[in-house]
Structures are given as structure tokens and as C-alpha cells.
Predict the structure of DUF1003 domain-containing protein.
Amino acid sequence: MPEPHLHRRLDQPRSSRWSVSFDPEAFGRLTERLARFLGTGRYLLLQTLIVIVWITLNLVAVGLQWDPYPFILLNLAFSTQAAYAAPLILLAQNRQDDRDRVSLEEDRARAAQTKADTEYLARELAALRLAVGEVATRDYLRSELDKLREDLNTKPRRVKGSP
């Protein structure tokens, strides 16, 4: 019976010989910068100049024709660029969606807290209105005192000792 390898465990996946580690956040920032650059006028101008120089050199300079008329190499370069640009743009959009989702969750939590605070203050205000309604106001006390004064002034006064 063959003996199992001492360093190999069958209950765990094999470890890769080629271990490449990278910071996903740094890679994400790089893709966002590239995607942002691909959408600028500077990039379009630069690419247009490169294409004009490429076509001019291949049509005019007979000795430098590395890509003759149908410009297959140029087409391949554009295809390769598109193959890389599309995923980079999608990565940048996904990162923006994640940021938007976090911002939306924070806004919802803030709105819920604001609503709860507003409802609390409305209840407190209603309680204060009820409490103030039960308290005698200055005008009410004045009117009652005026009535008492009138009653005292209209009733005859009794003198002590008189029947």
C-alpha cells in the first residue's frame, strides 16, 4: 500500500504554487482612473492622433509599412483596447454602484432618524398643548378676579354687630 504524502492533506484544497496577491482596493482605484481617462476628450484626441500617424506612415512611408492597407494590426489593437476597456468601465461602474448603495443606506437611516425625531417632537408639542390647556391663563385669572370684584362691589357690606 502506498504511503500518503506527509505534507498533503486530502480534506483541504491544494495550495497554488503561484500565489499572486494584490490589493483589490488599489486595483479598483486604478480601474476607475483608467475608465475616467477613457471618457475624456484628451484620450479621444490622443487616440485620433495615433490613428492618423499610423495610417499616414503605413500609406506614405513605403519602407515602414508594418501594417498595409486594410490595417489589420490597427484593427487588432482597437479590438484589444475594447476588450480591456469594457471590463474596466464595468468595474468602475460597480464600484460607483457600491458607493451609491452605501450612501443610499446612510440617507435612509438618517431619514428614519429624522422622522422618529419629528414624531417625538410632535408628541411632546401635543402634550404641552394639553398641559397648557389645563393651566389657568393670565386672562382667565383676570376675568375671574374682575367678576369677584364686581360681586364684592355690588353686594351690600355688612358691618359687624348689625343685623
